[in-house]
Amino acid sequence: MQPFETIYVDENVVACNGGVGALGHPRVYLNLSTEGKVECPYCSRLFVRGPAPQSQQQPQAPQTPPS
């Protein structure tokens, strides 16, 4: 089964609360395994240590030259 959402992080420990405010789940702290990934037992978000693949990185706003 596909994970609900994949989140790329630079840390070894992450916190997950479901991400939808009051409708989320209790905050849990998860340790990334030696494989560098862990799935939240409540919402199935997958946390992966490392940079996001190019296809999933947020596009940066174009720089406007100073006037």
Characterise the protein shown here.
The chain is an all-beta fold. The chain has a domain at 6-51: HSP40/DNAj peptide-binding domain. 0% of the residues lie in helices and 28% in strands. It has strands at 6-9, 13-16, 28-31, 37-39, 46-49. Strands 1-5-4 form a three-stranded mixed β-sheet, with no helix packed on it. β4 and β5 form a beta hairpin. The model has no long low-confidence stretch (mean pLDDT 82).
Question: Which strand order do you get reading across the main beta sheet?
Answer: 1-5-4
Shape: extended
Q: What is the N-to-C order of secondary-structure elements (H for helix, E for strand)? A: EEEEE
Helical residues, percent: under 10%
Assigned CATH architecture of one domain: Sandwich
Number of helices: 0
The computed structural class is mainly beta
CATH topology of one domain: HSP40/DNAj peptide-binding domain
Total strand segments: 5
Portion of residues in beta strands equals 25-35%
The largest β sheet comes out as: 3 strands, mixed
Looking at this structure, what is the CATH superfamily of one domain?
q5lls5 like domains
Q: For the terminal residues, how far apart are their CA atoms?
A: 51 Å
How big is the Rg?
Answer: 15 Å
Low-confidence stretches: none
Overall residue-averaged pLDDT value: 82
CATH class (first level) name of one domain: Mainly Beta
